[in-house]
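Morning F.,

Quick status update on the modeling queue. The single chain you submitted on Monday has been processed. Sequence for confirmation:
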Amino acid sequence: MTPRIAVVGAGPGGLTCARVLQMNHVDVTVLEQEQAPDSRAQGGSLDLHADSGQVALKAAGLYDQFMALARPEGQESRLVDPVTAELVRHEMPDGDFKPEIDRGQLRTLLLDSLAEGTVQWGRAVRAVGPTGEILFADNTKNRYDLVIGADGAWSRVRAAGQTV
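Structure tokens below.
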């Protein structure tokens, strides 16, 4: 029997996780509380570091597409005296190349890489039980063999173990 896997949260982490699972022929469902991919603006830009975000995008097979969209902005910094405009400090990148990408572009890249129907929109999670049962905001329930939390700072998944 194929295990039922749910990723809670359609942000960069959850979508990247789903992509890597699908690349490895694992069925996955992403549960997202937003009603649609364009329900809200996705915010500013992200710096993707070579030892974390870029590694994840390489594992997801999306590194080249990311680099085509990314900007190598802000890789050096200068500090000048506010009165004299004299250069006080000039720092060049330390080898950690961390290009920026707009959050919306990254989300679109990740969404487009997933099999159709992977993301279930409008599925706000209220709680996750210790056996993988998810209680949704509309009071429906569903059980998964594995629940992966990618739902941010106020994670419902992190609080798993509460009674559903």
